[in-house]
Amino acid sequence: MDQTQLKQQVAKAALAYVPDDAIVGVGSGSTVNCFIDALATIKGRIDGAVAASEASAQRLRDHGIRVFDLNGVSELPVYVDGADEITEHLHMIKGGGGALTREKIIAAVAKKFICICDASKLVPILGRFPLPLEVIPMARSYVGRRLVAMGGTPALREGFTSDNGNLILDCRGLDLRDPPTLEGELNQIAGVVTNGVFARRRADVLLLATAEGVSTRLAKS
Ligand code: 5RP
Asked: How far is the CA of 206 from the centre of ligand 1 (A)?
């Protein structure tokens, strides 16, 4: 089974978590694109979706799925999104696609966060993937210096502007052994909009695609 087939398999498995008549939270990335395509096969039994990126919103609309503004939605029973890395504790690094801020907002609203990944994303400890931070443009240098002082090596994501009009710094070398603490510390740096550690609001369920099928893991306390 190739990578695309693994993504399609896990995306289809996530449909089991979508209740009838729901507005579904939809993340972004290539695995989520497979989920959007799968969602289109059951679009008659959902009300619509809220999307974490303009790209996801467009793909949903192209399938004829109604896209809602989050401000008009009081309840989201489920949010389905991918990850760049995830641990057994269902802590994640996200933001490889630069949509981390909207992803974190929708994850915060949702009752249940279903993470869909292939097995290559499961890691014992976060940090091999460079940590994305969304940064207000005028704070780029200041945030960069603060990250260096914390032991990190930040790099500007060249030629990229987020859907919110901001920059992304990808940072290697930070100590990610305590993800909830680091997540909080990074958010205290003035000019950081969001960082890509998703630990304070981690996933509730991980659906992991392997050649042997989809395995399900629940968040450990
Ligand atoms: C985008 C994300 C994505 O969920 C993450 O990058 C995984 O993407 P893919 O499914 O393409 O591997 O956080 O901001």
From this structure: 14
122-141 confidence digits (pLDDT tens): 999 999 999 999 999 999 99
Which tokens sit at 14? 């996530």
Which residues are paired to 25 by β-bridges?
50, 79
On whether the CB atoms of residues 67 and 41 are closer than 8 A, the answer is no
Q: Is residue 103 among the annotated active site residues? A: yes
Measured in Å, residue 95 CA sits from the centre of ligand 1 at 6
pLDDT in tens, 85-111: 999 999 999 999 999 999 999 999 999
Going by CA atoms, what residue is nearest to atom 10 of ligand 1?
31
Pocket of ligand 1 (CB under 6 A): 27-31, 81-84, 94-100, 103
Closest CA to ligand 1's atom 1: 97
Give the span between the Cα atoms of 184 and 90, in whole angstroms: 17
- Per-residue DSSP letters for 61-86? HHTT--B--GGG-S--SEEEE--SEE
**What is the reported pTM?**
0.97
Beta strand 23-26 with 48-51: parallel, antiparallel or unpaired? parallel
Structure tokens at 13: 């498995």
